[in-house]
Amino acid sequence: MEVSLISQKDWPEWDRFVKGQPNSSLYHTLEWKNILEATFGYKARLLAVTSKTEIIDILPLYLISLLGIRKKLVCIPLSGSYSAFLSEDSTAHSLLIEAAVDLAVREGVQYIEIRNNIPHDILVHHNFIEHRPFYFPQIEIHNADANKRLMTHGHRESIAKFQKKGAHIEVGCKKDDLKKFYAILEDMYREFGTPIFSYSYLENMWNILKPQENIALYVIKHNEKIIGGGCMLLYRDQMIYKYGAYILASRSLCPTHGLVWFGITECVRRGLQVFDLGATSAGDKGLLQFKKNFGAAENPAYFYYFPVKGEPPEMETYLDSFQLIKRVWKLLPKPLLRFIGPQFYKWIC
């Protein structure tokens, strides 16, 4: 077996391998690579182990730079609840890890970050440091009645309230819907003091994933006005709640309850098996409980770090270190936020 960097001529073989593996995700695909490169300027470093020209396993890495000062290699940016490796071949895993470390040294990065949905002792054996900074609560889909019974009484009441107050959800089919959703998302992120990506990220996802129906936009309406929405990713038997937002003045309508319930019913209609409610910080107990009240199981994400030229962040306190920045962020004018926000988001990913 040997390891090599996949070049453009090998992309069709990469694509066939990924889509032929039962545990692959949308994040392993070339479509996701194209979105990341077009939006953030990440440089794909796709490693593959081959035997007699046949791919045995892969490790999709991305070179990320912060203003040309700091660099890191990440597998896979803007994901976390899916395995980096797609085989169970420990020899292939070792070869990929060793190749990743060699690549990191050549690229002069501060550290490597590999994200997994299961623990990988082989990474610890290769001197990677394990952290569990996030959970990815997931709902197992049965049918509408069964899934509603899995919820707490309070969540069922909130869904009924959403419906009784005349709010409803529609499938967004136009770019104009996407723009309106982004505007609401931008305002919500600012209120929470959180950097946001540029609109081009949503637009690139829409343009690249929509033809294969790997993305869905749901818009929340009240009195014929869009008050929120959710961007969902679809791949095989799963739906991923990627981004969601609502106008804060509409909180009393319970828009998030309505959106998640709509997502569950859409999963049932489409015959999907899992509804992934997205990343949640391990320290955000309130949000974790909110998601568990829908009947979601907690699933820790395992982040592995290998220091090369600098120490990796202490992930358990990493997000807390931005509290002062968050307070300042809310006071900055929108044009400035639109310029610097994507730079922060690009690095944090």
List the helices and strands and how they pair.
Blueprint: E1 2-5, H1 11-20, H2 30-40, E2 43-51, E3 54-66, E4 70-75, H3 90-107, E5 111-116, H4 121-125, E6 129-131, E7 134-135, E8 138-140, H5 144-149, H6 153-164, E9 168-172, H7 175-191, H8 199-209, E10 215-222, E11 225-235, E12 238-246, H9 255-270, E13 274-276, E14 280-281, H10 285-292, E15 302-307, H11 315-318, H12 323-329, H13 334-348
Parallel strand pairs: 4-5, 12-13
Antiparallel strand pairs: 1-2, 2-3, 3-4, 5-15, 6-15, 7-14, 8-13, 9-10, 10-11, 11-12
Helix pairs in contact: 2-8, 6-9
Please characterize this protein's 3D structure.
The protein has 349 residues and is an alpha+beta fold. The chain folds into 2 domains: 2-133 and 301-313, Gcn5-related N-acetyltransferase (GNAT) (Aminopeptidase, 3-Layer(aba) Sandwich), CATH 3.40.630.30; 138-292, Gcn5-related N-acetyltransferase (GNAT) (Aminopeptidase). It has 13 helices and 15 strands. It has helices at residues 11-20, 30-40, 90-107, 121-125, 144-149, 153-164, 175-191, 199-209, 255-270, 285-292, 315-318, 323-329, 334-348; strands at 2-5, 43-51, 54-66, 70-75, 111-116, 129-131, 134-135, 138-140, 168-172, 215-222, 225-235, 238-246, 274-276, 280-281, 302-307. The protein has a 7-stranded mixed β-sheet with strand order 1-2-3-4-5-15-6, with helices on both faces. Strands 8-13-12-11-10-9 form a 6-stranded mixed β-sheet, sandwiched between helices. A hairpin with a 3-residue loop joins strand 3 (54-66) and strand 4 (70-75). Helix 6 crosses helix 9 (255-270). The longest helix is centred in the first third of the chain and has 18 residues, at 90-107. The radius of gyration is 20 Å and the shape is globular. The mean pLDDT is 91.
